[in-house]
Amino acid sequence: MKIQLVPTKNLLSKSKIPGVDFVINPYVGCPHNCIYCYADYMRKFTGHTEPWGSFVDIKQPLTPLKPALLFHTHVMLCSTTDPYNPLEEQYQLTRRILEQLVQAQAYVSILTKSDLVVRDIDLLKQLERCEVGFSFSSVDKSVCQQLEPGAASPDKRLAALKTVSQAGLFTVVMAAPLIPGISDWKSIITATQEYTNEYRFDKLNLKPGFQKKVISFIAANYPHLVPLYSDIYLKGNLRYWQELAQQINPFCQQQKISSTIFFD
Ligand code: SF4
Question: Domain limits at 201?
Fold first, then answer.
């Protein structure tokens, strides 16, 4: 893993995500190294030629965040890295950012595949408004090991979800990306329902130029799924996602689960 400290003028990025004012990515790169990671495109902007997952830039902010600018704004951590990737344990960048967001009375959304977030419950509880999201494309340990080799195991994530929920924080399960033929959305709900306030479902998006990597992975590990992937991603057939939404929607309504499907 290539690790470097990079002086950074501004940690804040204006967000195009609906309802989110700013995004903070304290790191460039992500050791979780998910096979499907769309943030791979960050290499282009940062001059990295190494494979995604094999480098991390640790941002060194030159100035603190401006509390007046952030007052009652919605700040998301993160969009192109994981705020609790394993390096956070040592460098504590996310923790220092949260300390400033508490001072600024910002609203904060966290999204992670790590159990390290429980370390910061003391700060998260001081925020005016906060939601802690855990991503699951699967709760099957061997599937996660294949898809997200550097992330915390699903058991660790589930334990962290329980701890965060029991601390009284609002919790979100991001059932995403749903990997065709592999992700089992119902088992994700079953494993998390007791400790989850809200669900969000999203599909695996494969932008052109990125398809090859994932489809090669599928061909090597799940060859029986190649026709399905070809149908969805090469022919652009939306039927798989339409049928999936038609299963998820009534199930969530029946179970009185608060949910949003982003591919509906
Ligand atoms: S945790 Fe998120 S940012 Fe990190 S590799 Fe996985 S998908 Fe990418």
Answer: 2-206+245-261
Distance in Å from the first CA to the final CA of the chain: 39
For the chain, 264 residues long, the average pLDDT of each consecutive 10-residue run is 94 94 97 92 85 94 96 97 98 98 98 98 97 98 97 98 98 98 98 98 89 94 97 95 98 98 89
Helix or strand (DSSP H, E) at 128: none
Question: Does the CB atom of residue 152 touch ligand 1 within 6 A?
Answer: no
State in Å: Cα 68 to ligand 1 middle: 31
The CATH number of whichever domain residue 44 belongs to comes to: 3.80.30
The rounded distance, in Å, linking the Cα atoms of 222 and 90 is 37
Find how far residue 16's CA is from the centre of its chain. 16
Read off φ and ψ for residue 151, nearest 5 degrees.
-85, 165
How many angstroms separate the CA atoms of 74 and 19, rounded? 7
CA of 58 to the centre of ligand 1 (A): 15
What one-letter code names the amino acid at 170?
Answer: F
Domain-located, residue 220:
no
Specify if 80 maps to a domain. Answer: yes
Decide if 67 contacts 99 (C-beta within 8 A).
Answer: no
Residue 177: cis peptide before it, omega within 30 degrees of 0: yes
Whether residue 157 has its Cβ less than 6 Å from ligand 1: no
Tell me the sheet residues that pair with 57. Answer: 4, 28
For residue 235, tell me if it sits in a domain.
no
Q: What is the dihedral of CA 259, 166, 178, 22, to 10 degrees?
A: 80
Q: Answer for the pair 134, 112: CB distance below 8 angstroms, yes or no.
A: yes
- The DSSP secondary-structure symbol of 215 reads H
Task: Tell me how many domains the chain contains.
Answer: 1
